[in-house]
Design goal:
globular, single chain, Rieske_Fe-S_prot, alpha+beta, 11 strands, Rieske Iron-sulfur Protein
Length: 164
C-alpha cells in the first residue's frame, strides 16, 4: 500500500511564523508602554496639568475656592523638606523643595508610563528603568526619561494640601 501526502492548502509556514512573531512583538511593546514621544505615557492626573502649570498653578499657596472642590491629599507636616510623598491612588507626587514651598507632579514616569515610587535626596525616583526627576521643577536628573514630570495643580490652605 502506497500512501501519498497532498500539500494542505492555506498559508505558507513562513507566513504563519512571521505573523506569530509580529503578534508577540505587539504584545511586548504594549506591555512595556510606548516611547518617550507617546502622549499617553503621562496622563494628567488633574485633567489638565500642563494647562494648570502654564497658568501658574501647582506652586502651593492659598487660592480661595479651589480647595473646596479639590481632593484632600495631606497635611503639610506629612511632606518632608527636600523630599515628598507619592499618592498612588491619585497618581500624583507632592514635594517640598524648600521650607514652605509645595509642588506636585504627575506620578507617571515620562519614559514608559511606570509609576514613580519614592522621593529621596531631592529626587523623585522611578523604579522601572531608574529615571530620576528633580523635586524643584520635575526636570529629568537622570534618564532614560527625556521629558520632565508634568506639574499638577495643588492648593495649600493652612496646613492642608489639596489636589485642585
Amino acid at each position: 500500500m502506497t500512501v501519498s501526502f497532498q500539500p494542505a492548502s492555506g498559508p505558507a509556514r513562513r507566513t504563519v511564523v512571521a505573523a506569530a512573531g509580529a503578534a508577540g512583538l505587539a504584545v511586548a511593546l504594549t506591555a512595556c508602554g510606548g516611547s518617550d514621544d507617546d502622549a499617553s505615557a503621562a496622563p494628567a492626573p488633574s485633567g489638565g496639568a500642563a494647562d494648570d502649570a502654564a497658568n501658574g498653578g501647582g506652586t502651593g499657596g492659598s487660592s480661595g475656592g479651589d480647595a473646596a472642590g479639590g481632593t484632600p491629599l495631606a497635611s503639610t507636616a506629612d511632606i518632608p523638606e527636600g523630599g515628598g510623598k507619592v499618592f498612588a491612588d491619585q497618581k500624583v507626587v507632592v514635594v517640598q523643595p524648600s521650607a514652605g514651598e509645595f509642588k506636585a507632579y504627575s506620578a507617571t514616569c515620562t519614559h514608559q508610563g511606570c509609576a514613580v515610587k519614592s522621593v529621596s535626596d531631592g529626587l523623585i525616583n522611578c523604579p522601572c528603568h531608574n529615571s530620576n526627576f528633580s523635586v524643584t521643577d520635575g526636570s529629568v536628573s537622570s534618564g532614560p526619561a527625556t521629558k520632565p514630570l508634568p506639574e499638577v495643580r495643588i492648593t495649600v490652605d493652612g496646613d492642608s494640601i489639596t489636589l485642585a
